[in-house]
Design a protein that fits this description.
- This protein is an alpha+beta fold and about 525 residues long.
- The longest helix has 25 residues.
- Helix 9 packs antiparallel against helix 11 and helix 15 runs antiparallel to helix 16.
- The protein folds into three domains: about 150 residues, 3-Layer(aba) Sandwich (D-Maltodextrin-Binding Protein, domain 2), CATH 3.40.190.10; about 120 residues, Dipeptide-binding Protein, Domain 1 (Dipeptide-binding Protein, domain 1, Alpha-Beta Complex), CATH 3.90.76.10; about 220 residues, Roll (Dipeptide-binding Protein, domain 3), CATH 3.10.105.
- The strands form five sheets. It has a six-stranded mixed sheet, sandwiched between helices. The chain has a four-stranded mixed sheet with strand order 1-10-9-8, covered by helices on one side.
- It is globular and about 70 Å long.
- It contains 16 helices and 18 strands.
Length: about 525
Amino acid sequence: MRFVRASRAFAVLAIICLVIASVSSAHAAMIFHRGNSAEPDSLDPHMTTSGYAGNIIFEMFVGLTTVDSKVNVIPGAAESWTISPDGKTYTFHIRKGMQWSDGHPVTADDFTYAFQRTMDPKTASRAAPLLYMIAGAREVNSGKAPVESLGVRAIDAATFEVKLLNPTPYFLELIVHRCFPVPRWTVEKFGKEWTKPENIVVNGAFKIVEWTPQSRIRLVRNPKFFAADTVKLDEVIYYPTEDQNSALKRYRADELDVIVSFPPSQFEWLKENLPNDLTITPNYGLLYYTFNTRKAPFDDPRVRNALAMTLDREMFAEKIMRSGEPPAYSLIPTVVRKGYVPAASPWQGVPMAERTAKAKALLAEAGFGPDKPLKFTFRYNTDDVQRRVALAASQVWKAMGVEAQLQNSDLNVLNADLRNGDYEVARYQWFAEYADPTSFLYLLDSTSVGDNYSKYNNPEYDAVMQRVYQEVDAAKRLALMRDAEAIALRDSPITPINFYVGKRLAKPYVKGLDANPRGINISRWVSIEK
């Protein structure tokens, strides 16, 4: 009898344990471990244009518009909008009941503040020139007009208006990234410290709770997010993975669920052994070399062209990149062109022997030769692939009697030095924020102070770009953009090396990481289904 009772008791206990285990399993935290290309330079949405910071900003803030998992533009903080017949006035209707993470309502005033703060010269936002199509933006950003004169206003708490100088077909796509709302009361209280985990207030799907530099950034689901009931992840943890070899090791050890790059030498192995994890997608990225045109001798287009024309882009792509990156002779990636026919590089298709002979002649004209060799420092970020490309480039230049000393540094350090003009020649990259050639031609506009790392200042180029911005006829606009690119390729303040492809490894149990040319995958759409 005692045995029967004991058996029953054991059975009941087993059932209870199973129920507890089932409940515990059902409520296990869903955590997404993401590799990111570098440590963010800032998490203030108005202070950075870097993609690796933008990935995290996208998690915490939502602008007037946002994107779905396939990067289609969809309503964000604005549930709808109207565009005037002339294409120059946008009226946005803010979602009813939308809140900040601290319970404050999200209103049209938050967007007035965001746009004005971005354009205020005191903010020194690198993104400001991207928004010069807004009425009064250029004058405000240059300090010639008060921020209140910017062409934005809150008509009432739920209605926000933007006036543009010219019709801008990509405006809704641009503001997916730019002028995110920020909490004025928090910014004014904490100043530059407002993005610290203990201070930050957000309106997006996740909120940062931990930032351990060079280690990880941990975000948790924001219960105040307007669509919190559709967010499946409990936490998202970002890890800086600038070292591709280390990133791959961590991925294969199941420490990371996704990484955004890997060593090219492993590409064939990955295709054979991890085909379900591997995704290669053409994207909106350009790798380029930039010359500091404010420093002699790189203020001389003959020197710039001599160095640019002798780079063997096909060899770089086939022997070093090795993941399908197309060699670039245009500033505009193929997937961004949309009917645009790029200008021809002056030396594209010319045999390398002829290019080399021409390059030596240009250097001689500029005063360089065996008795006076050209010497400079070439900067690149700490990355094995870029090191190998830089080494290959330096060997090409060495054959012409040019001495290039290679110097590597952390990506954020390189970014800051390029922005401040503290370099001679360097490699960098740009990923478009909207699918239009101007997103790359913008890099050489003299007013693009935040991203014009070459410090190129050519009134001829600027004049053509102003006509581009004002032209409403599509065919004429395409022709003008081609004229601008032809000037840029002639002068070579920057020289394209290759177009990027999105290279990603993701565990098959990660759902919602749809491949797309913009390389944006907001965790709001992701789930872990093991």
